[in-house]
Amino acid sequence: MRIYGGLKPEDWRRWGQFTTFKGNAPELLRRELRSDQVIYCSPLVDPYQPAEAGIGMMPRILDELIARPPRIFTIQTRGPLIMRDIELLKTLAGATDLRVSFSLTTDSDDVRRLFEPLCATLEERLDAVRLLRESGIRTYATLAPLLPCDPERLARIALEATEEDVIGDPFHVRAVKRHGATTRDAAYRIGEKHRFMGWFDPDFQAEIVRRISRVATNAGRRFAAGTEGFRWLAH
Question: Would residue 108 count as lying in a domain?
């Protein structure tokens, strides 16, 4: 991202405080689309972040996909703004294997306000998930990042809202993830202030994953964390 995004050192220090976008993304996409492709939109940047309300990039991108559908198209988001494009998504679902992975991070709105103060509430996200599901779009509940929560309750909420297997991912910590990006310092500061530091401990994380997995298994569904789970979205 530092190289390909054209970011400068000051930009990197301010990561998360601003948004850039490719104004010609639909035109670039048009040149690259093929019928055998699997496209994941996007593991790095939420396509339905608040800036999209003003930019309006996704309808143009969806139009290109409808005209030249790939084999699989997956959208990763936590933004109810996706409901704005429901008619385009329904059309695209008739042309390709469309999947929406919707992030449900905690069952506690108090926790959500601490870690995701500018993001939608759980109920707003569930409204979007229900609309997508009722529109015939394959919709996954993605418990990522796993914020402090009642894991069994969050698992039940995810299972009730969707029909697909459930995916999760704890906070990325260097003790487990040797390379690449890990959880930013701000999350550790919040965790320390509010006594949530256990959620950054790999052993504690593994136990939370096991608890969620038990609930999913008892409901006849699969649950996987990390790469294994996210792989389901592209195969």
Answer: yes
- Is 3 a domain residue? no
Supply the DSSP symbol for 226: T
Per-residue confidence band for 44, with pLDDT thresholds at 50, 70 and 90: confident
The structure tokens listed for 132 are 């997508």
Q: Are 78 and 45 in contact (CB under 8 A)?
A: no
Q: pLDDT of 85-124, one tens digit each?
A: 999 999 999 999 999 999 999 999 999 999 999 999 999 9
Answer whether residue 125 is part of any domain: yes
Check which CATH number belongs to the domain holding 40 and give it: 3.80.30.10
- Taking all residues of the chain, what is their mean pLDDT, rounded to a whole number? 94
Backbone angles phi, psi at 123, to 5 degrees: -65, -40
Domain membership flag for residue 131: yes
Other beta carbons within 10 angstroms of residue 203's beta carbon come to 8
Q: What is the pLDDT of residue 3?
A: 56
The answer to whether residues 127 and 100 touch, using CB atoms and an 8 Å cutoff, is no
Residues 36-71 as b/e (b if ≥16 CB within 10 A, e otherwise) read eeebbbeeeebbbbeebeeeebbeebbebbbeebbe
Query: C-alpha dihedral over 167, 172, 174, 176, to 10 degrees?
Result: -20
The total number of structural domains in the chain stands at: 1
